[in-house]
Design brief:
The structure is a single chain. This protein is globular. It has a domain of 240 residues: Prolyl oligopeptidase, N-terminal domain (Methylamine Dehydrogenase, Chain H, 7 Propeller), CATH 2.130.10.120. 7% of the residues lie in helices and 46% in strands. By secondary structure, the protein is mostly beta strands.
C-alpha cells in the first residue's frame, strides 16, 4: 500500500526540543543560556535590511518561495505580456524562462509555491482563463518539467512543496469538483490517506512528514494568496500514520513542528503544533505561515482597531515582534528560512503591491517592535 511504502522509506526524527518546552521556559521567565537555542545568532537580531523584490503580485498570477540559501523565486512580467519564472539571489535577478507550453501553448503562466535548497522549484502552470485548467511543474538544472495529472480526467493540479529528496506534495482538482492531496515520489503519485472529501498537501520536510488541511475553501484562499481561516482543519501524515489537528497548518520544519493557527473563542490565533498539540503564540487575530529549524515563526496579525494586517516574527526565546516595514500600509509573511531571512509581501502607503525580503542585520534600517500579548488559555 502507498502509506506502507512511504513509512518504510522514511526515518524518524528524534532528540528534538519541543516548542512547549520553550514556552514553559518563557512563562517562568528563566534566562538560562543552556536552555536557549544555539542556532545562528541572526535569529535574535533586532534590526533588518529591507529589500524590495521585482516579482509580480500574487493576484496577477505571481507567487514566491524562499530557500535556506536566501534564494527567492517568483514570476516576472515580460514586455510581450508573458510571465517568466525568475530567481533572485544576492541582488541579482535571473530570468529562468517561460514554461514550455504543455500540454498546449495556452499553458504559459507559472505560479510559484515552493523551492528546496538545491534550487528545484515547484508550482502551477495555467492559462489566461484563470486557475483552471492547470498543470504542475518542476524547474531544476534540466529546465522545466510539466507533470501529468494524477488522473487524466482531473481539471488541474498544483505542486505546493518540495523537500531535499525531491519529493513533492500538492493536490489535483477532480472532474467532480473535489480536491485530492497527493505525494509525488520516485516518479509516481500516492494519494494521501487523509479522511475527508476535500484535502490538500501544503508542505513536506526532509524526513518526509507531510502537513496539509482538509477543506475546500482552503484551495480558494491558496490560489488567491490569502492563507487565513477560522474554519479549516489540518493534519500531519508521518510514517504511515495520519494525525488530525484541531487547528490549521501551513508550514512544517525539519523537526516536525508545524505552524498555522488554532481557534480561541471563535477567533483564529497563530499557533505552533508539536505532536498534535497546539500552542497559541499570539493573543490577537492572526495566523502563522512559516517556521524554521530554530522554531522561529512568521505570520500576520490584525492590530487592534486597524483594518490592515501586520507581519510578525515569534520565538520562544524572545516572544513576538512586529516587522512591518516602514512605508507599508499592510504586510504579511510568506516564509522564513534557517538563516532568519523573512520573505513578505504587502501594500505600500501609495497603494503598490510589493514583495520584499527582510535580512537580519544589526545595522539594518528596520527595527522590530515588541508585541506584549501573552498567549491565552483555552486554545484548541
Amino acid at each position: 500500500m502507498c502509506a506502507e511504502r512511504i513509512a518504510n522509506e522514511r526515518s524518524v526524527v528524534v532528540g528534538r526540543r519541543t516548542v512547549r518546552e520553550f514556552l514553559s521556559i518563557l512563562s517562568e521567565q528563566i534566562e538560562t543560556p543552556s536552555k536557549r537555542l544555539t542556532m545562528n545568532s541572526c535569529f535574535a537580531a533586532e534590526r533588518y535590511d529591507v529589500t524590495s523584490l521585482p516579482f509580480i503580485p500574487f493576484s496577477n498570477t505571481g507567487g514566491e518561495a524562499l530557500n535556506n540559501n536566501g534564494v527567492v523565486v517568483g514570476g516576472i512580467a515580460n514586455t510581450d505580456g508573458s510571465v517568466s519564472l525568475a530567481e533572485w539571489s544576492k541582488g541579482v535577478l535571473t530570468n529562468l524562462g517561460v514554461p514550455p507550453g504543455l500540454p498546449s501553448h495556452d499553458f504559459n503562466i507559472p505560479r510559484v509555491f515552493g523551492i528546496n535548497d538545491c534550487g528545484a522549484v515547484v508550482g502551477t502552470i495555467h492559462t489566461s482563463a484563470g486557475d483552471l485548467p492547470s498543470r504542475w511543474f518542476i524547474y531544476d538544472r534540466n529546465g522545466f518539467t510539466v507533470l501529468p495529472l494524477a488522473d487524466p480526467t482531473d481539471l488541474g493540479g498544483a505542486a505546493i512543496g518540495i523537500n531535499e529528496r525531491g519529493e513533492v506534495v500538492g493536490y489535483d482538482h477532480t472532474s467532480s469538483n473535489k480536491v485530492v492531496g497527493w505525494l509525488w515520489s520516485d516518479g509516481a503519485y500516492c494519494r494521501l490517506p487523509v479522511s475527508g472529501t476535500n484535502t490538500t498537501a501544503l508542505g513536506i520536510n526532509s524526513s518526509g512528514t507531510i502537513i496539509g488541511n482538509r477543506r475546500f475553501r482552503l484551495i480558494r484562499r491558496l490560489l488567491t494568496g490569502r492563507l487565513r481561516s477560522t474554519g479549516e482543519r489540518g493534519y500531519v501524515f508521518n510514517h504511515g500514520t495520519t494525525q488530525h489537528l484541531t487547528g490549521f497548518v501551513y508550514a512544517i520544519n525539519d523537526l516536525g513542528e508545524a505552524a498555522g493557527g488554532s481557534i480561541v473563542n471563535g477567533q483564529a490565533m497563530a499557533a505552533v503544533f508539536n505532536n498534535g498539540i497546539a500552542t497559541v503564540i499570539l493573543n490577537l487575530p492572526s495566523s502563522a505561515v512559516g517556521i524554521n529549524s530554530a522554531a522561529s515563526v512568521v505570520g500576520s496579525y490584525q492590530p487592534t482597531g486597524y483594518n490592515g494586517r501586520h507581519l510578525f516574527r515569534w520565538s520562544a526565546n524572545s516572544g513576538a515582534f512586529d516587522l512591518t516595514p516602514d512605508g507599508y500600509r499592510s504586510a504579511e509573511a510568506a516564509a522564513i528560512n534557517d538563516r532568519g531571512d523573512i520573505l513578505g509581501f504587502g501594500e505600500t502607503l501609495n497603494g503598490k503591491s510589493q514583495y520584499f525580503l527582510l535580512t537580519p542585520d544589526p545595522n539594518g534600517g528596520l527595527t522590530q517592535k515588541a508585541l506584549i500579548t501573552p498567549p491565552p488559555a483555552g486554545a484548541r
